[in-house]
Amino acid sequence: MSTPHPASPEARDRLVLGVVGGSGLYEIEGLQEVEQIALETPFGRPSDSYTVGLLPRDGGLPPVRAVFLPRHGRGHLLLPSEINFRANVHGFKQLGVTHLLSVSAVGSLREDIAPGDVVIADQFIDRTAGRAQTFFGGGLVAHVQMGDPVDPGFSRRVAGAAAAEGARVHEGGTCIVMEGPAFSTRAESNLYRSWGAHVIGMTALPEAKLAREAEIAYAVVALATDYDCWHEVEVSVEAVIAVVKANVALSRRIIRRLAAGLPEATAELPYPRALQFATITDPARIPAEARRRLDLIAGHVLPPSE
Ligand SMILES: CSC[C@H]1O[C@H](OP(=O)(O)O)[C@H](O)[C@@H]1O
Ligand SMILES: Nc1ncnc2[nH]cnc12
């Protein structure tokens, strides 16, 4: 399978679907012409090798290229705090991904979001600590916008695919992203409820911020697995995994249904041009090392060095 350079106009015009699998989703199904690709990045190693292949598309269109990575690694070896989010997103970018679907297990902070329901989260509150949040730094400064952290058009398609596959879908919702790995205290859980949040997880950030910097459209399909501890019963990994396992076939069907309806060209489902007005550093002062490290992410918005 030939892959154009991800920064080339040809690659940026062609829609490529990325899927980052969460707890319980370590493989996807139905891929044709499958390859496993192990990558290195300037930010270290991703969580595992990427599975790359083709998923069928409706309407006589050629299949869509799809790239899958389990964010905790196969066998679930990585804590949320141990995930190298920068390497994971950089790897997706290297493989030409333009649209990244995050699959995530979350706790519910609302009575009306029951275990087994799907939430297409569209806002996040960052309660992580000490995670690398950006590709930038070291002499090249950029500030991307995060007012709308997920891509609305892509998220609508994800919601449509989930509903078509029979899920009970909540379109929109605020996700608290905590550091973990311990689940919340009851006081924290009640505090997050008082903030109006809908669900709680441990991984959507900094993933969404890095996807934005990489100009990859991002959407989350969050599977509610439990009622966090505000609901009186403690959260247990056993309960979370039981719900994920009961819904793993649903998650895979949502991915296939989403892929089937995707257009061929990014013009029909544009990704964010997030870096167009985000860099602030005087191009003449950018260190060569920073230019090299950020070439794939920001090379297209930087004037060439003299
Ligand atoms: C196994 S319960 C806690 C664990 O599950 C979620 O992972 P992911 O978002 O990758 O599905 C949550 O964020 C925690 O990492
Ligand atoms: N209650 C919860 N808190 C944080 N992350 C979760 N993932 C699944 N359930 C969770």
From TrEMBL:
According to UniProt, the reaction catalysed is: S-methyl-5'-thioadenosine + phosphate = 5-(methylsulfanyl)-alpha-D-ribose 1-phosphate + adenine
Q: Where is the Nucleoside phosphorylase domain?
A: 17-259
Provide the GO MF annotations for this entry: S-methyl-5-thioadenosine phosphorylase activity
Q: Indicate the annotated site residue(s) for Important for substrate specificity.
A: 184, 237
The pathway it acts in is: Amino-acid biosynthesis; L-methionine biosynthesis via salvage pathway; S-methyl-5-thio-alpha-D-ribose 1-phosphate from S-methyl-5'-thioadenosine (phosphorylase route): step 1/1
- Supply the EC number(s): 2.4.2.28
* InterPro entries in alphabetical order: MTAP, Nucleoside_phosphorylase_d, Nucleoside_phosphorylase_sf
What's the superkingdom here?
Bacteria
Is Transferase among this UniProt entry's keywords?
A: yes
Q: List where this protein forms a coiled coil.
A: none
Q: Which UniProt keywords apply?
A: Glycosyltransferase, Purine salvage, Transferase
Q: Which residues bind phosphate?
A: 23, 71-72, 104-105, 203
**Positions that bind substrate:** 202, 226-228
Task: Tell whether Calcium is among the UniProt keywords.
Answer: no
Pfam families on file: PNP_UDP_1
Top EC category? transferase
Entry's family note? Belongs to the PNP/MTAP phosphorylase family. MTAP subfamily.
Biological function: Catalyzes the reversible phosphorylation of S-methyl-5'-thioadenosine (MTA) to adenine and 5-methylthioribose-1-phosphate. Involved in the breakdown of MTA, a major by-product of polyamine biosynthesis. Responsible for the first step in the methionine salvage pathway after MTA has been generated from S-adenosylmethionine. Has broad substrate specificity with 6-aminopurine nucleosides as preferred substrates.
What HAMAP family does the record point to? MTAP
Subunit organization = Homohexamer. Dimer of a homotrimer.
Designated name of the protein: S-methyl-5'-thioadenosine phosphorylase
